[in-house]
């Protein structure tokens, strides 16, 4: 029992340090003269999100060493930033695969679907597909979280922040960690049923 408590304590400390580092990167990276673009920061935060989401135990992602698959729909700059970020490898012992698509035709199966702002017309369809695959939906478009996206990034002054729709995440059969929710602006909203 003490071993389990020590492991949990160690995990909490590591996650706290990761969150601190992530918030420092976000606050510093968009400052004037920075070498990181909003796409670079969003890409780094997007991948870090996976460590704060619990997939169902029978889902392939819950079992190592399946690669983290990210499908980016209609956001070529973000797809490029993700590819640059993981050109040399993966994250947390996992390989990262990035698929870029201009449309929702033949969506590649993924653990995370990032939805570009040009896909407002197809949002319900994308959310339905993601829910059926137990995939996390992410965007950076105002109002998308209220429409059923799980995590939505937004810029506030020189920082990239995020909002979380816990209900939307749970509709996909996923669970957001307390740490993630405590750092986010929590929104309510429906989306695809």
Helix content: 25-40%
**N- to C-terminal distance:** 41 Å
Biggest beta sheet summary: 7 strands, mixed
Helix and strand succession?
A: HHEEHEEHEEEHEHE
Strand content: 15-25%
| Rg, alpha carbons | 16 Å
Q: Structural class, from secondary structure content? A: alpha/beta
- The stretches of 5 or more residues where confidence is low (pLDDT under 50) are 10-29
Task: Name the average pLDDT.
Answer: 81
Total beta strand runs: 9
* Major sheet strand order: 3-2-4-5-6-7-9
Compute the number of helices: 6
Shape label: globular
Describe this structure in words.
There is one protein chain. This protein is of the alpha/beta class. It is 38% helix and 20% strand. The protein has 6 helices and 9 strands; from the N terminus they run ααββαββαβββαβαβ. The strands form 2 sheets. A 7-stranded mixed β-sheet has the order 3-2-4-5-6-7-9, with helices on both faces. Strands 1-8 form a two-stranded antiparallel ribbon. Strand 2, helix 3 and strand 3 form a beta-alpha-beta unit. The longest helix has 28 residues.
Write the SSE topology.
Layout: H1 2-29, H2 38-49, E1 53-54, E2 68-73, H3 76-85, E3 96-101, E4 112-115, H4 123-133, E5 136-139, E6 151-156, E7 159-164, H5 166-171, E8 175-176, H6 178-183, E9 185-186
Parallel strand pairs: 2-3, 2-4, 4-5, 5-6, 7-9
Antiparallel strand pairs: 1-8, 6-7
Summed up:
By secondary structure, this protein is an alpha/beta fold. The protein has helices at 2-29, 38-49, 76-85, 123-133, 166-171, 178-183, and strands at 53-54, 68-73, 96-101, 112-115, 136-139, 151-156, 159-164, 175-176, 185-186. The chain is globular.
